[in-house]
């Protein structure tokens, strides 16, 4: 450790790299290839392979030799089970997801804010046979891109929103002009009026989504419920019905989270 202020500590750099690799390895339930992790991490292939192998030796990751993909290991499951006792959001949200899926026929999701992203935590499949497969557990989107992130971003303080809307070349190349800062601002303004967000096929054509924010005890948007499906299921007249259902369930969870004495109310 160095005594000079402002100089990164080597150990902290390693921790940051490991955290990044864990996020990349876990974003696809079917597993993530090494080449994809190397590409998106910006690290060298030998460095990535060495760190992944070390995590696998500790049971934190698994490597599937048949598909050559990396997956979360059993230790991640143990950690998650322990953390779930302190952060009961999944237990509180699951009944709402089930009601939304049953009443609408669409797939319902719970996402959490993590920094400048949302991460999908839970999914409940609807009965409608044609589905959108954009969202599933572990998927991350920048705030303002998917319906959950739009719903959360809309109710953050203005100065924080503007900081999060600073976009680099990589963001523009990945998400396109439909997710420019001005386009996102316009969507945020609409969301503040209705209370719920609408993603009109901006990630994949024909795949629509809607979302509503869940607030923590500090009254900050920390999670979001969302519904996804195909465009004909999200016509303007039905959006109002779906939006009201989302708001009712999001408000229900917010009230439960804000009850005195409930553990794990922070994002």
TrEMBL record:
- PROSITE patterns per the record? HTH_ICLR (PS51077), ICLR_ED (PS51078)
Q: Which UniProt keywords apply?
A: DNA-binding, Transcription, Transcription regulation
The keyword Transcription is assigned to this record: yes
Q: Per its UniProt record, what Pfam families does this chain match?
A: HTH_IclR (PF09339), IclR_C (PF01614)
Residue ranges occupied by any HTH iclR-type domain in the UniProt entry: 12-74
- Provide a Gene Ontology MF annotation, just one: DNA-binding transcription factor activity
What SUPFAM superfamilies does its record include? Answer: GAF domain-like (SSF55781), Winged helix' DNA-binding domain (SSF46785)
Please tell me whether the keyword Transmembrane is annotated for this protein.
no
Q: Output the superkingdom of the source species.
A: Bacteria
Q: What is this protein called?
A: IclR family transcriptional regulator
């Amino acid at each position: 450790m160095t005594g000079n202020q402002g100089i990164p500590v080597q150990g902290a750099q390693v921790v940051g790299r490991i955290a990044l690799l864990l996020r990349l390895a876990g974003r696809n339930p079917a597993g993530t290839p090494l080449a994809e992790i190397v590409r998106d991490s910006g690290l060298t292939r030998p460095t990535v392979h060495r760190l992944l192998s070390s995590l696998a030796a500790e049971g934190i990751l698994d490597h599937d030799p048949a598909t050559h993909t990396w997956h979360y290991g059993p230790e991640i499951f143990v950690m998650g089970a322990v953390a779930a006792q302190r952060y009961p959001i999944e237990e509180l949200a699951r009944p709402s997801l089930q009601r939304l899926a049953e009443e609408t026929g669409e797939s319902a999701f719970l996402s959490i804010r993590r920094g400048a992203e949302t991460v999908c935590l839970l999914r409940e499949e609807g009965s409608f046979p044609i589905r959108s497969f954009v969202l599933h557990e572990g998927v991350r989107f920048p705030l303002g891109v998917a319906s959950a992130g739009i719903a959360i971003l809309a109710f953050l303080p203005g100065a924080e929103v503007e900081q999060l809307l600073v976009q680099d070349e990589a963001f523009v190349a990945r998400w396109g002009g439909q997710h420019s800062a001005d386009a996102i601002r316009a969507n945020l303004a609409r969301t503040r009026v209705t209370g719920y967000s609408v993603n009109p096929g901006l990630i994949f054509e024909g795949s629509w989504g809607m979302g509503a924010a869940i607030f923590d005890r500090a009254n900050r948007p920390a999670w979001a419920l969302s519904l996804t499906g195909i465009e004909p299921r999200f016509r303007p007249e039905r959006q109002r019905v779906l939006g009201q259902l989302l708001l009712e369930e999001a408000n229900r969870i917010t009230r439960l989270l804000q009850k005195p004495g409930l553990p794990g109310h922070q994002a």
